[in-house]
Amino acid sequence: MTFPFPDDLVRAQREWLATYRQLAAPRSRHTTALRRRLLDLSAWILWHPFWSTPSGRTPAARVELRRLAHRQEQKRGTRAA
Known about the structure:
Mean pLDDT: 92
Structural class: mainly alpha
Number of helices: 3
Radius of gyration: 14 Å
Low-confidence stretches: none
Largest sheet: none
Number of strands: 0
């Protein structure tokens, strides 16, 4: 199923993934700032108005948002190489 995710929600999920990767990297620097950013993004994603729409009320929508963000990041990484 395809969900009509708003661009800002997808962008926030991609930023969440990038921040998480930075935090998980060995010898990561600025961990406090990265943790704060991750918490801010988590709250922003969680309380986005999309989740109160009929399309956003299913658990499948949350899973699909993460999958979509991963796919977009993989495409972005492929183009950058």
